[in-house]
Design goal:
The complex is a heterodimer of chains A (234) and B (266).
Chain A lengths: L26 H17 L1 H11 L4 H18 L5 H15 L4 H16 L7 H19 L9 H16 L4 H18 L23 H18 L3
Chain B lengths: L5 E2 L2 E2 H13 L8 H8 L3 H13 L3 E3 L6 E3 L2 H12 L1 H17 L2 E8 L2 E8 L14 E3 L4 H7 L4 H8 L14 H14 L2 E4 L6 E9 L5 E10 H4 L7 H17 L11
Antiparallel strand pairs in B: 1-2, 3-4, 5-6, 5-10, 6-7, 8-9, 9-10
The chains are: A mainly alpha (234), B alpha+beta (266).
């Protein structure tokens, strides 16, 4: 891996110049990310299902396992030309294969990330941050959820914020991605105390309190996978 | 002279007992006297008397280990009695079963309660998947087909009041504009069914038709609920599904004593 340079990234929002390391992410990164996500979700499948059984349809683990395995297999057999194109492809697979609410939500997030990266063959930290922000935006457009509603957003938003802060603070991408994963996990744990205001869990009203949100939990796995994929040598 | 424990015609101690039950029915399922007193802003001595009385009636019970209170078994009996005595629910049981097995999707029956649809009956999708029982759930009327099917046939003062809101967004597709909703309600009276496309939960759709009572007024609605790709692919419900929902709702309306004219949904 090459050390950080003083290259200023494309500023994704707010006028502050951000220094990011010259770690450029390519199609191999997307393969590693989705592959690692599929592996983590497979290992945690029963845990996700158990969480979902308390406040949902008890199908989150199975659905996510099926969808991410299919997305991984798709990227293995058909490596795209650009990271963006591969994320769009993986997102489309998720929409078709995951089902429930998670399919459209995660699928549209990956698709929007891919669209945000565009035709670039290699991607820096700033572009990745902008792409992740576009992904969150896609989820919030579909689900109309804000932080505190006990959804994916409660893990995703703090992870994104931590990533941005670390990058703006001059940290390298691997460190920033580690911090994002830690923040996602803390965010998911904080959903235990929340009353669901979106999705089927909201039908339970106050009874949804005391259970960790399965969507926020699977989001932590995606950020954990991202940290692995970024940290791994290219 | 008004007795000290009545306000605007209500009995304060009964109201307080109800608040205790609601507190115990919320997230913190077990609460001590001190916790309840702090949460509800009522003196500890008063709480103590109230929970002891509720305990005698089996509406609450005390955990022998911690001394904390939780909801009691008599409430389950009352909840079941509510459902058993609910005319639309009891008459809908066979109709809902028949609809679910005919089309292979989940069926729900709901009644308008304030501005939400209260689910009074739910038949699971007849496959082996795990599903959560939604009886007792409250869904904002404008975000579900059950609500749109019912409100479309309500008398105009009530319909106007409901359209005036609030109309919260449950997903990015929830219709929150009163004028667009009004147009949907007109379409419901034209088509005889209401459609909801991911307006309550991302990935789910619902097709519902109104059920009328002997006065020809909407008693509630009955509908199919399930994955959007089967119920409303690109916004289009399968004709076989809409026909089945309307037919079953008509049959249920007749069971409720609705005359031929009243079964306008058909």
């Amino acid at each position: 891996m090459v050390g950080p340079t003083a290259e200023a990234s494309r500023d994704p929002g707010g006028g502050v110049e951000m220094q990011v390391g010259e770690v450029l992410l390519d199609t191999g990164f997307v393969q590693r990310w989705i592959g690692e996500a599929a592996a983590l979700i497979h290992r945690q499948r029963d845990f996700l299902t158990q969480l979902d059984a308390a406040i949902g349809d008890a199908d989150h683990g199975v659905n996510m396992d099926r969808g991410f395995s299919a997305a991984r297999d798709g990227l293995m057999s058909d490596v795209g030309a650009t990271p963006g194109g591969m994320l769009v492809q993986a997102g489309t697979t998720l929409v078709l294969r995951v089902g429930g609410a998670a399919g459209p939500l995660y699928g549209s997030a990956l698709r929007r990330m891919g669209e945000s990266l565009g035709e670039a063959e290699r991607v820096d930290g700033g572009s990745l941050l902008a792409a992740l922000r576009a992904g969150l935006d896609g989820i919030q457009r579909l689900g109309a959820a804000v932080e505190g509603d006990k959804t994916i957003v409660d893990a995703y938003a703090p992870a994104l914020l931590a990533l941005e802060r670390a990058l703006r603070g001059g940290r390298d991408l691997a460190t920033a991605a580690e911090r994002a994963a830690t923040s996602a996990e803390a965010g998911a744990r904080a959903t235990v105390a929340m009353q669901a205001r979106k999705g089927r869990a909201s039908y339970l009203g106050p009874r949804s309190v005391g259970h960790q949100d399965p969507g926020a939990t699977s989001t932590t796995l995606l950020f954990e996978a991202l940290a692995h994929a970024v940290g791994a040598p290219p | 002279m008004i007795p000290p424990d009545t306000r605007r015609g209500t009995i304060q101690s009964v109201e307080r007992a109800a608040r205790i039950l609601r507190a115990l029915g919320s997230g913190t399922a077990r609460m001590g006297v001190t916790e309840l007193a702090e949460d509800l802003g009522i003196a500890k001595g008063t709480i103590h008397g109230l929970v002891r009385t509720l305990e005698q009636q089996e509406f609450v019970e005390q955990d022998p280990g911690t001394g904390k209170y939780r909801l009691g078994p008599a409430l389950l009996q009352l909840g079941n009695a509510f459902l058993d005595n609910h005319e639309l629910r009891s008459r809908s049981l066979l109709w809902a079963d028949s609809l679910a097995s005919r089309v292979g999707e989940a069926v729900r029956v709901g009644v308008l309660n304030g501005s939400t649809m209260l689910i009074v009956h739910h038949v699971f999708r007849p496959d082996d998947s795990v599903q959560i029982l939604e009886v007792g759930a409250s869904i904002p009327w404008h975000a579900c087909a059950l609500g749109k099917a019912t409100v479309a046939y309500e008398e105009s003062p009530r319909r106007d009041a409901l359209l005036a809101g609030p109309l919260p967004a449950l997903t990015g597709r929830t219709i929150t504009d009163p004028e667009r909703l009004r147009e949907e309600l007109v379409a419901v009276t034209r088509d005889g069914f209401a459609l909801e496309d991911q307006e309550a939960i991302v990935g789910e759709a619902e097709i519902a038709a109104p059920v009328f009572d002997h006065r020809g007024m909407p008693a509630g609605a009955l509908g199919l609920v399930g994955p959007v790709e089967r119920l409303a692919l690109e916004g289009h419900p399968p004709a076989a599904f809409t026909a089945a929902v309307r037919e079953i709702a008509r049959g249920l309306s007749r069971d409720m004593g609705a005359g031929r004219l009243a079964a306008r949904g058909g």
